Amino acid sequence: MKAHDALYIDGAWRPAASGDVIEVVNPADEQVIGKVPAGGALDIDTAVRAARAALPAWAATPPAERAARLAALHRALDGRKDEIAATVTAELGSPPKFSEAVHAAVPLAVAASFAELAARHSFEEKVGNSTVLYEPIGVVGAITPWNYPLHQIVAKVAPALAAGCTIVLKPAEDTPLVAQLFAEAVHEAGVPAGVFNLVTGLGPVAGQALAEHPGVDLVSFTGSTAVGRQIGAVAGAAVKKVALELGGKSANVILPSADLARAVNVGVANVMSNSGQTCSAWTRMLVHRDQYAEAVELAATAAAKYGDRIGPVVSAKQQARVRGYIEKGIAEGARLVAGGPEAPRERGYFVSPTVFADVTPEMTIAQEEIFGPVLTILRYEDEEDALRIVNGTVYGLAGAVWAAEEAEAVAFARRMDTGQVDINGGRFNPLAPFGGYKQSGVGRELGSHGLAEYLQTKSLQF
Question: What are the residues facing 434 on neighbouring strands?
Fold first, then answer.
């Protein structure tokens, strides 16, 4: 068991103001595997004050030097990649291969991208008779989720460092151990004291204190839409900026000309990855009525192959939530073709890979984010009907379109109210902006667009 008894504030490890701790549970076997301090409002205040004190010097640091610290951070994380993967497997329940390929490798790619971007990004430009300056927004309060614990930390901290901001990080209480590894890497990379600070704690306590703190200039939050609304309200009252990456109910649109088998198999794999705990997962599969029966059979067969290949969901609470949605789908008349609400194991927070057919757009399981390994398959009559279904939720985070010709898929994707669309299985790009329309959020992460969230604009007229 790993027992961390300190917070990382102002370049040093120090105890929390209270002696309270948070126990970290392995969701695969329900055993306590670690403890971290339960930081509170006093710890947040200390961390924010340290970040404010460090801000002037870090903001004035040349971009090339900030880039060098980010490159050093990348090296420090790379040296810990095996420990990172093992830690995420233990605290999230992610299968080891997935932890290595995604939870460890993707944050490394993102960190490297921001090190390169910081070195070449122009922080000023000429516009007519003006010089426009792009300056750090100030102190960032970063609140990260449990589903991709290191990736979401890097996606917030790396651009903030590149921009010249200082940061206070409050990671998810379910998966705080990898955040401790990240803080160790920051220290090893030589990031000046106070520039990065880590306070572990509960969301309603430490998270709320961070969002409300008057010394925070930007709150960057990834999580549920409900909590995002609360943070937006708090930030709005203080007239401070927010960046919100929230929920999704993304559509996977299979047009009649597409390779149906490939589109269905990739779509099922997308939903089952990370045990369905992905905000951008394509949880609604849309299939033309003439191909619907075949698609349902393909999806049911594909889902059955996952079985023990996916890990548990993160907690007993999340397991109960997902199983409740499955029961709701059955009650509302959807046809269960794979999986179901019964727990597949006596121990651990596992949920069976589940597929619903005969789902209609108004059903709860077609409208609300489930955040588990549950796929809903909807039929459409024609492209206009498909588009109506795609855009018929409060979300607009991600999606996919499949067609024989790329131009056909692109034409449909242009009409989708969503922030990111994969065309015929497009690959992840760490430089492309990620974020949502409607209630899926405000702002963008990754690449130059992600960096821009941490900058404010000043113009000098001549």
Answer: 445
Q: Classify 331 as helix, strand or coil.
A: helix
CA dihedral 342, 345, 348, 350 (to 10 degrees): -50
Catalytic option among 245, 369, 408, 445: 245
Task: Please state, in angstroms and rounded to a whole number, the distance separating the CA atoms of residues 37 and 206.
Answer: 11
Closest CA to 425 of 267, 212, 204, 233: 267
Question: Distance between terminal CA atoms of the chain?
Answer: 62
Tens place of pLDDT per residue across the chain (462 aa): 677 889 999 999 999 999 999 999 999 999 999 999 999 999 999 999 999 999 999 999 999 999 999 999 999 999 999 999 999 999 999 999 999 999 999 999 999 999 999 999 999 999 999 999 999 999 999 999 999 999 999 999 999 999 999 999 999 999 999 999 999 999 999 999 999 999 999 999 999 999 999 999 999 999 999 999 999 999 999 999 999 999 999 999 999 999 999 999 999 999 999 999 999 999 999 999 999 999 999 999 999 999 878 999 999 999 999 999 999 999 999 999 999 999 899 999 999 999 999 999 999 999 999 999 999 999 999 999 999 999 999 999 999 999 999 999 999 999 999 999 999 999 999 999 999 999 999 999 999 999 999 999 999 999
- For residue 245, indicate whether it is catalytic: yes
CA distance 332 to 142: 39
* CA count, 13 A, side-chain hemisphere, 309: 11
- Tokens encoding 290: 């003439």
Single pTM value for the model: 0.97
Q: Which two tokens stand for residue 210?
A: 């961070």
- 165, 212, 279, 408: the catalytic one is 279
Q: CA 148, CA 228: separation in Å to the nearest integer?
A: 17
Q: What is the Cα–Cα distance from 17 to 455, expressed in whole angstroms?
A: 32
Q: How far apart are CA 77 and CA 228, in angstroms?
A: 29
